[in-house]
Amino acid sequence: MHLLAKDEHHPRTRDGWQLHLTRTWSPEHLDRSARPVVILPGYGMNAFIFGFHPRGTSMLRHFAEAGFEMWTANLRLQGDARAVHPDAGVPSLRAFAEIDLPLAIDEVLARTRSTADTVSLVGCSLGGSIAYAHLALAARSRVGALVAMGSPLRWVRVSPLLSLPTRSPWLVGMFKMSGNRRLARTLLPLLAKTPSLLSIYMNAAHVDLSHAVEMAQTVEDAHPRTNRDLARWIGARDMILRGVNVTEAMSRCQQPLLVVIGNRDGIVPEPTALSVLDVWGGRDVEVLKVGTPDDWYAHADLFIGNDAPQAVFEPVARWLRAH
């Protein structure tokens, strides 16, 4: 196994947050002509899981050994990102897209060993939605290509679990969630004994849950404001930020786009993940659909499934190399 190099960066936002970016690369494989790749975590998670795999090669290692300079971006309230003063701005979908992500991209391009002047974004779940929102709001984007993995845009179809909060976004935003990581450590091994309860999120036949303690390190507590934003978005079907309809704004996007979906995703149903195809402005658009009726893929399987290195990471790496 090749040794990977790593360093950390902590840029500060204008509203008082210190973000946490980690760069990982393989000195033996690094291709300086390739764009740096920035991975964005999803809802209630940090970037830990991208450097971990319960049985095989992690996403970070797979891409680094394919020659890419890899970056993970923990935005506000993710991982080791922290508020630097008591009046720091609240975590919200708009703040992620309008403040944190542009700063992260600028930091990557200021520090990269690559000769490229744009980044490739890999948005995972809500991370892909934040990437969409960034492209909608940015007057000038430094994104050269986008991979959206299990990411909603327009909520064409909503899972029953996610439809409940939309009935009262105000009430959802009143409650602070805490202890989610500890809860995940406790529940995951128990739920493994009743796979049907996990099926909305993962196929237990695909994921080695004996590593539940390690996997739980990626779980974070979501901020009430973020929960309220999500409830409003799901209820309205389209994300509206700063008066901009993010779905409609995708018609201006010309970047190459790869949409990755699991064939039985119970969190982001297929029509919702594929809604971007109806509005994306560019012509270079591809879909990677993973799973079969007998060997189905759910939401989390895209990142930690036993076969994810071969079924997901490798085709995504090939696509990034071609774009």
Q: What features would you highlight for this structure?
A:
alpha/beta; Rossmann fold; 13 helices; 16% strand; globular
Taking the sheet with the most strands, its summary is: 8 strands, mixed
Order of SSEs, N→C?
A: EEEEHEEHEHEHHHHHHEEHEHEHH
Number of domains: 1
- According to DSSP, the number of beta strands is 12
Q: Strands across the major sheet, in which order?
A: 1-3-5-4-7-8-11-12
| Average pLDDT level | 90
Strand content: 15-25%
Name the helicity range: 25-40%
Q: Quick one: overall form?
A: globular
CATH topology: Rossmann fold
SSE class: alpha/beta
Identify the CATH class.
Alpha Beta
End-to-end distance: 27 Å
| Second CATH tier, the architecture | 3-Layer(aba) Sandwich
Rg, nearest Å: 18 Å
Instruction: Quickly count the helices.
Output: 13
Low-confidence stretches: 169-175
Annotated CATH homologous superfamily: Alpha/Beta hydrolase fold, catalytic domain
Oligomer: single chain
Indicate the topology:
Blueprint: E1 5-9, E2 17-18, E3 20-25, E4 37-40, H1 59-65, E5 70-74, E6 82-83, H2 93-111, E7 119-124, H3 126-137, E8 143-149, H4 160-163, H5 169-172, H6 180-191, H7 195-198, H8 212-215, H9 224-236, E9 240-241, E10 244-245, H10 246-249, E11 257-262, H11 270-273, E12 285-290, H12 301-304, H13 308-322
Parallel strand pairs: 4-5, 4-7, 7-8, 8-11, 11-12
Antiparallel strand pairs: 1-3, 2-6, 3-5, 9-10
